[in-house]
Model the fold of this input.
Amino acid sequence: DSLLNSDAATFLGIAAIFLLVKFLLDRDIQNKRLKKDGDSQIRKKKYVLSSVTTTVFVVYFLSVYFHLEFLTNIVRFSFSLALIYLVSLFAHRKILVLYGEEVEVSGQTYFKRGYTANIFSLFVNVVAFLISIFLCIQIFELNTFIQIGGLWA
Done:
């Protein structure tokens, strides 16, 4: 029963992440409707997103149907990485707005990265990397291998 609940939570999490990314891409398409180059790049991103989404859902349903725990762990790990990626993108954006240097070009305001923004962005990247390593160890249950490696050393 708890396996079913965790699988349902994983499915809902994956669906929420990909729907959020699809919404953000659709909003980008509406904002850049006048630029053809940007529009074609966003369409490519949307195509890649839809193919990745389809692949993840197929792998997820196959792993649940055939009770393949390793595939389920791969889906959970990819879901976790996607969530970490989106959170770090949000943090980078906020850092750029708060600590970046404001530059006005042709009536539009841009934010240029400065020393402080780069240091905070580096900190966010290190934290995201450490969390990713920790999640990899926990999801794939590699902590027993680490303990065995410690005994061998």
User: Anything to note?
Assistant: The beta strands are 101-105, 108-112. The longest strand covers residues 101-105. Confidence is low (pLDDT under 50) at residues 34-38.
